[in-house]
């Protein structure tokens, strides 16, 4: 875990996130959103959680980003560009950021260096998932099924 | 030279604030969803960072919470985008300022 890689990834992620939040063209903002999630996945790799990083790449860049692009294309007859911008949101976001930074820098117990830890293997994740977390796993499966059916029902053609 | 935990928390806080900015400022429904996804990702980053810096990393609790959170965020994105398409079909707009029929 080196500082140089951390700085590069942090700048990339935050710049892409800011672009996704402020760009006027919808498609450019959606692609910046995908880039920001590549940066977050790189953070997960840097922190030693390779499996979560891979899941992040598969789910967000493989599925959610494509879903967002499809939705933009399906609804683009309306507005090519997002015109209105509410400036009071900027004030609230800066206030929240200031409060969080104040709390983080005030807390002494979080300014610690990373301890040496054994690598977290996929085998270990699978064992934990199938023993201690079996009920949450089943609930998530049920939730995903319900979300799939719900999304299908929402976009079904209505009978007139 | 390793980055400390607080630096990761600062990056995560910045990401959360950018997501909040997108969710509050944009008038397009898809971008409100993108902002919510960013806030969820910032929370995931916090979970992973706290797991990495914890004294007992043998228990991968933070990793598990992050995996479940990603699954739930994916379900939320699917239902949210289906809602956007359904709303667009009814009102021919995705601008949330124009969706004020329930206003008294």
Could you please describe the fold and organization of this structure?
The complex is a heterodimer of chains A (160) and B (104). By secondary structure, chain A is mainly α. Chain A has 2 domains: 1-78, no CATH class; 120-160. Helices cover 73% and strands 0% of the residues of chain A. Chain A has 6 helices and no strands. Chain A has helices at 3-22, 26-46, 50-74, 88-106, 122-131, 134-155. The N and C termini of chain A lie far apart (60 Å). Chain B is mostly helical. Chain B has one domain (5-96): Helix Hairpins (Orthogonal Bundle), CATH 1.10.287.3510. Helix content of chain B is 73%, strand content 0%. The longest helix of chain B is centred in the C-terminal third of the chain and has 31 residues, at 61-91. Chain B is elongated. The model of chain B has no long low-confidence stretch (mean pLDDT 88). The chains are: A mainly alpha (160), B mainly alpha (104). Chains A and B meet through helix 1, helix 2, helix 3, helix 4 and helix 5 of A and helix 1, helix 2 and helix 3 of B.
Write a brief structural summary.
The complex is a heterodimer of chains A (160) and B (104). Chain A is an all-alpha fold and 160 residues long.
Keywords:
heterodimer, A: 160 residues, mainly alpha, 2 domains, 6 helices, globular, B: 104 residues, Helix Hairpins, 3 helices, 73% helix, elongated
